[in-house]
Amino acid sequence: MSSTSHERDYQLRYREDRPSQFLAGTSIEVIDDFSPAETPRFAVFDFDGTLSLVREGWPEVMCPMMIAALRETGTSESDEELSRIAMDFIMELNGKQTIYQMIRLGEEITKRGGTPEEPAVYKHRYHELLMQRIESRRESLRRGEANPADMLVPGSLELLAELQQRGTSLYLASGTDEQYVREEADLLGLTPFFGDHIYGAQDDYKNFSKQMVIERILRENEVEGSRLIGFGDGYVEIDNIKTAGGTPIAVASDESNRSGKPDEWKRKRLLGVGADVVIPDFGEHRALCRFLWKED
User: Fold this and answer.
1) Which pLDDT score, from 0 to 100, does residue 7 have?
2) CB of 126 within 8 A of CB of 102?
3) More exposed terminus of the chain, fewer Cβ within 10 Å: N or C?
4) Band of the pLDDT at 6, cuts 50, 70, 90?
5) Global pTM?
6) What is the pLDDT of residue 13?
7) Which of 43, 46, 93 has its CA nearest to residue 244?
8) What are the extents of the domains in the chain?
């Protein structure tokens, strides 16, 4: 998969306080009186935070690693200042391939008079630290000691099954390295829903983006963007689906608590790039599908 198309960095494009209403008796928030123009034929899902919770807590690994790298420049900034700076650009680039966060780290090191490593070195360092945090989760899934549903956003399997039953073709596109996405999709029982349509970050990062996946779906199937829905908790996939003329559905998931309530920071951020619908998880998948298929 190659293209010259790459995702834009986060920019506020829509008001975060647009009027909205909830579907009767649900927590499904519909923005600006949105109504689907056509019923979906294709659905694109982000992975981490949208379906999988295996990597929950990853910013708590990435941020300290970046603070340590910035500290090596000899900067006089406090750890609190460096934490704020790092978290700002970590979340600004969230949803893109991990390498982009590491490229930005290198730029910040250079600004402070340091000589950065190659971005891939930082990415490898981060991944080693992240694996220390999550390997026990992965191993418990491998051994059958953990219930995959406990490491998924609530309602994920049920929604995927319903979409599949309705004839929707499902695609998975992640900023995490593809080999790990495929491994973790297997462990969570997601592979049967997506088959070969699982895409993730590549070593040659310029030859992959979520936007490329979307463009390929529309091109190869000769369909308009209006037949596409997208689910994500990061700005990239919401922005890309909106730009393609599809229906972007913000999954404002509470990853650490699985509370069924929307994460307000995610909600506002995703409204700012054009989400048409906001949900806290997939617990009300039947009502959501009835709305998308205009059955109510």
Assistant:
1) 59
2) yes
3) C
4) low
5) 0.93
6) 83
7) 43
8) 20-53+152-292, 59-142
d(CA 38, CA 294): 9
pLDDT (0 to 100) of residue 3: 39
Residue 204: what pLDDT?
87
Dihedral sign for Cα 48, 140, 185, 64, please: positive
SS3 string, the chain, reads CCCCCCCCCCCCCCCCCCCEEECCCCCCEEECCCCCCCCCCEEEECCECCCECCCCCCHHHHHHHHHHHHHCCCCCCCHHHHHHHHHHHHHHCECECHHHHHHHHHHHHHHCCCCCCCHHHHHHHHHHHHHHHHHHHHHHHHCCCCCHHHHECCCHHHHHHHHHHCCCEEEEEEEEEHHHHHHHHHHCCCHHHHCCCEEEECCCHHHCCHHHHHHHHHHHHCCCHHHEEEEECCHHHHHHHHHCCCEEEEECCCCCCCCCCCCHHHHHHHHCCCCCEEECCCCCHHHHHHHHCCCC
When pLDDT is averaged across residues 234-261 and rounded to a whole number, the result is 95
Residue of 137, 149, 202, 135 whose CA lies nearest to 175? 202
Give every CB contact of residue 238 below 8 A, 6+ residues apart in sequence: 230, 232, 248, 250, 270, 273, 274, 275
Work out the average pLDDT over 155-172: 98
Judged on CB neighbours under 10 Å (0-12, 13-18, 19+), 220 is: exposed
Q: Are 60 and 129 in contact (CB under 8 A)?
A: no
Q: Is the dihedral of CA 293, 36, 40, 248 positive or negative?
A: negative
Specify the pLDDT at position 254: 95
Place of tokens 């088959």: 195
Q: What is the pLDDT of residues 206-239, one digit of tens each?
A: 888 999 999 999 999 999 999 999 999 999 999 9
We find that the CATH architecture of domain 20-53+152-292 is 3-Layer(aba) Sandwich (3.40)
